[in-house]
Recover the amino acids of this structure.
């Protein structure tokens, strides 16, 4: 039964299985284990980023394609929901329609980009996606009449998903449940389903072909697989998943803006999580995201303390300034590409 | 009995389109200029825009030329190239600030001397950085595009953050040297002096680079290496060493481009390299990876188109360049002047 859900892709390591179970358990009961708004926000963010990162890993780790437009697709899903609710008013139909529209648009967009860049050289894809994603980000902040510009847009979601709604009069397990918790479980289960779906995809014959192309595109083509077709499909699938995650993110945050969905920093976070977690392993997305987001929340505080403690030294406090944490991530990133290309999960599975 | 096939030599000229074909990419630049003239109704603003477009194109060319050669020679894609642009700009501006007495003086010679020293300092620093970058970051990942993209991107982040550590703050505003401020009026168009100088400098650099690539033995090895590195190695040349030289030269040029760009915008930020890289990628792709001429043509096209559209419809400026890229890739998927044949 478990194997069926995992599509036959066992964790293959006791420690990894234990970590995954802990993460699953913690996320499933987050409202009860860690009461408080901030921890619920963190848990929801982890759920959503697991899907975003996993969908990016589908492209980077399984198909070997580097894209810098993943946040663009993520943003398309989020903006889809925002625009639909503004046009159609608050309601589930608007949420569903917005999600679908965002997903379809980003899949089509991905197909177009894939067709004219992957056709020539896979390396063009990285450069072209970078150019297009930045153009779209600029456009979104300029077309403020439609997208709300830099300020972004607030989204009005149905009352049942908001904090004012009380599903039960009595506290459950000591917690006063609100619509926020309903919303959290919407996030949790949709992310769980999407993740298991992607696990299914990468372990299907389609996923195997992608891995073959990653290892040797020339040979895969010679065997008879149409490399461009498979790469374009992987791009589309990954974009659609990112858009779905973006829609869920928008519903959870009740807000979209360029910095929360389209920013370069989010793209770098995603890249980093994939590499740290382990390229080419879906579980890497889970472990990497959990570690990264927790670290992001607490490391910055620690760096602030360290910076203050070393204030008497030259240069050191500047290097340890919390604003410089991206630099340390960059160094960590370079080192992990060199020394741990298979990431945490690869290490735990004993493959180097 | 069958007739012998027709193989008598004929003295027909090639048709016009066949003769024109090799020149098409070069003709695209004047085509854009004419196109701009038709769409912009005032000749004065057209001239102003053309000069600033050419200036922008020249600067992008200076930055992009090193990157395209690096790719051509060793199949190395360097996403960290933008770091050299930012570093060059910060070093150059620091030198200009130190030489405040020279830049403030109303003597053209002193101003140009200060500018020259700033540019040399920037080139020296970014050249040295390029040497280190090649050793530490790029060398371990030869042969794997995926790792190159990831690692050089990481290098870019670290370099950007180092700028924050060294120079602090967000952005630095700088004034141009005294004699390069202001503009001259020609046929009713205001042309900024600095832009004219940028165009001249870019043109000189392009011609110098062409002369080196076409006229010296080193240039011959570089061009041969771009076309077929294995063959050049088989001939006994150490292509690695040539590659390091090209990498350092390309980084130094990127630093120079950074100084030029910083003075053009009159403001520098740590992220500027990354922002310029987007245009550089477009240029390198449409020019054809590995081709210096293609890079030059592409840079001029992007610079001109960017300025014309920014005047006609500001919101479409970046989109227009992407549209240009899409159109060129549909026409010639390998870029306008494809040179890499063996890979």
């Amino acid at each position: 039964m478990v194997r069926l859900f995992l599509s036959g892709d066992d964790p293959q390591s006791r420690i990894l299985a234990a970590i995954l179970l802990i993460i699953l358990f913690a996320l499933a009961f987050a409202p009860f284990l860690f009461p408080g708004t901030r921890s619920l926000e963190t848990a929801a963010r982890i759920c959503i980023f697991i899907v975003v990162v996993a969908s990016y890993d589908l492209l980077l780790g399984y198909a070997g394609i580097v894209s810098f437009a993943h946040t663009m697709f993520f943003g398309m899903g989020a903006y889809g929901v925002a625009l639909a609710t503004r046009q159609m008013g608050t309601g589930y139909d608007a949420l569903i329609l917005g999600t679908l529209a965002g997903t379809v648009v980003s899949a089509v967009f991905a197909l177009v980009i894939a067709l004219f860049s992957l056709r020539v050289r896979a390396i063009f894809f990285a450069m072209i996606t970078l150019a297009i994603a930045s153009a779209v980000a600029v456009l979104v902040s300029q077309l403020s009449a439609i997208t709300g510009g830099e300020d972004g847009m607030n989204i009005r979601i149905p009352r049942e998903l908001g904090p004012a709604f009380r599903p039960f009069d009595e506290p459950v397990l000591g917690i006063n449940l609100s619509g926020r918790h309903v919303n959290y479980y919407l996030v949790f289960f949709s992310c769980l389903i999407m993740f298991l779906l992607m696990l299914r995809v990468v372990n299907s014959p389609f996923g195997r072909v992608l891995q073959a192309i990653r290892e040797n595109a020339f040979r895969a083509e010679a065997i008879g697989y149409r490399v461009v077709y498979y790469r374009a499909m992987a791009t589309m699938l990954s974009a659609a998943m990112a858009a779905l995650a973006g829609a869920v993110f928008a519903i959870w945050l009740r807000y979209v803006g360029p910095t929360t969905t389209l920013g370069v920093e989010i793209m770098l976070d995603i890249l980093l999580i994939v590499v740290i977690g382990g390229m080419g392993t879906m579980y890497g997305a889970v472990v990497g995201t959990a570690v990264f987001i927790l670290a992001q929340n607490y490391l910055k505080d620690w760096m602030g303390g360290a910076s203050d403690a070393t204030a008497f030294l030259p240069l050191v406090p500047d290097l340890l300034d919390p604003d410089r944490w991206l630099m340390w991530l960059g160094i960590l990133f370079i080192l992990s590409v060199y020394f741990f290309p298979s990431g945490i999960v690869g290490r735990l599975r004993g493959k180097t | 009995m069958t007739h012998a096939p027709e193989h008598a030599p004929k003295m027909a000229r090639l048709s016009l389109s066949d003769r024109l074909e090799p020149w098409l990419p070069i003709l695209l630049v004047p085509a854009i200029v004419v196109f701009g003239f038709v769409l912009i109704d005032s000749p004065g603003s057209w001239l102003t825009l053309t000069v600033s477009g050419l200036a922008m194109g020249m600067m992008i060319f200076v930055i992009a030329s090193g990157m395209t050669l690096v790719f051509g020679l060793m199949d190395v894609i360097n996403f960290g190239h933008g770091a050299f642009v930012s570093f060059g700009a910060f070093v150059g501006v620091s030198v200009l600030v130190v030489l405040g007495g020279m830049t403030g003086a109303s003597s053209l010679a002193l101003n140009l001397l200060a500018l020259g020293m700033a540019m040399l300092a920037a080139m020296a620093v970014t050249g040295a950085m390029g040497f280190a970058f090649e050793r530490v970051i790029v060398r371990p990942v030869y042969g794997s595009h995926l790792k190159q993209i990831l690692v050089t991107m990481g290098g870019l982040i670290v370099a950007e953050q180092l700028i924050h550590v060294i120079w602090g703050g967000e952005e630095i505003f700088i004034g141009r040297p005294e004699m390069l401020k202001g503009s001259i009026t020609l046929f009713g168009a205001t042309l900024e002096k600095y832009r004219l100088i940028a165009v001249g400098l870019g043109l000189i650099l392009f011609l110098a680079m062409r002369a080196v690539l076409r006229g010296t033995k080193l240039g011959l090895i570089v061009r041969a290496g771009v076309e077929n590195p294995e063959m050049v190695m088989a001939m006994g040349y150490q292509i690695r060493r040539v590659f390091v030289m090209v990498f350092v030269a390309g980084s130094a040029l990127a630093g120079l481009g950074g100084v030029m760009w910083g003075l053009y915008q009159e403001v520098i930020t740590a992220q500027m390299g990354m922002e310029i890289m987007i245009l550089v990628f477009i240029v390198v792709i449409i020019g054809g990876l590995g081709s210096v001429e293609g890079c030059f043509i592409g840079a001029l096209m992007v610079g001109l188109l960017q300025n014309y559209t920014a005047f006609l419809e500001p919101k479409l400026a970046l989109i227009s360049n992407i549209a240009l890229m899409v159109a060129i890739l549909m026409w010639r998927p390998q870029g306008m002047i494809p040179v890499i044949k063996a890979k």
Residues 2-348 of chain A form one domain.
